[in-house]
Amino acid sequence: MDAKTENRTENPLLAEHQMRxxxxxxxxxxxxxxxxxxxxxxxxxxxxxxxxxxxxxxxxPWERTDHSGTAGGGGVMSMMHGxxxxxxxxxxxxxxxxxxxxxxxxxxxxxxxxxxxxxxxSLIAHLHNPNVxxxxxxxxxxxxxxxxxxxxxxxxPVLDRRRMQHDPDTVAFHAAMKAACDAHAxxxxxxxxxxxxxxxxxxxxxxxxxxxxxxxxxxxENDWEPSFAFxxxxxxxxxxxxxxxxxxxxxxxxxxxxxxxQLVRRGRYVEFNLLYDRGTIFGLRxxxxxxxxxxxxxxxxxxx
Length: 304
Prior knowledge:
- This protein is an alpha+beta fold.
- The chain is 39% helix and 25% strand.
- It has 8 helices and 9 strands.
- The chain has a 7-stranded antiparallel sheet. A two-stranded antiparallel sheet has the order 7-8.
- Helix 2 runs parallel beside helix 5 and helix 3 runs antiparallel to helix 5.
C-alpha cells in the first residue's frame, strides 16, 4: 500500500498528527501496563490470592488485511492474568485501508472516499475481587476525509451496593472525569459527555445501564491541538484514578454470594459488547484481530 493511502493524505501536517497520536497511545499503553503490574506487586500479605505470583503482561503482535486482502497495519495485544486482575487487556492498534462497501455509509467522511486510517488504545479490566469495579477505557484518532478523536472511560461496579451514585468510588471516578473535561472546557463539555456515556452504555433490551457511567465522546473535530490535549488528559486521568480505586478495595474479603453476583453482572458486559459496542463492530468489520477485539469478554460469567 502506498504512503498516500497509508497516511490517508499527503498533507504533512495531518501525517504529523497521525504520528503524534499513535506515539501517545503507545506510551499510554506502556504506562498503564506498568501501573497495573505495580498493583500486582503491592497486594498486601493476607489479602485474597496474595499467595499467588504477581501477574505480568504478555504482548502479542498481530497484522490485518482489509476486505480486499491488502495489508493494512495491525497492533499489539497486551494481556495479563494475575492475582488482582483476573483478566485485563491493554491494546494498541494502528490500521489503514479501505472500508468495505456495505460499511462506508456508516462512517463520517467515508461514503465518497472509502480510505481510512485509525489509531487508538483500548482497555478492559475484570478483577478477581467483586469489591473492585471493572473498568473500560479507550481513546482513538480516526481519519477519513474527516479527522476526529473519540473515546472515554466508564466504571462498572458489580455489587449492587457499590452501584449507587453516592458510593465513594463512583463519586471519585466521576469527579476525576469532570476535572479532565473542565480543564478543556472549550472542546469537552462535561455534562454533554456524561449524558452521552449514560445513553451509550445502556442495555436497551434490559432497560438498564451497564454500570455507573463516566464520559464518552466521538467525532471531536475541533482544533486538533486542543482536542488532542483533552484526549491525552482522559488517559492521564484514568491512569491516576483507577489504580487508586483498585488499591482502596483489592484487599477486602468477599463472600461466595458476592462472587456469584459479580459473575451475573459480568454478563451485561458480554451482552453490550456483542450487541451494541461500536468498537467491537468497527474492529470486526475492518478485519481487526478477533482475539484482541473479544478480549473484553470476562473470563468467567453466568446467566442464571
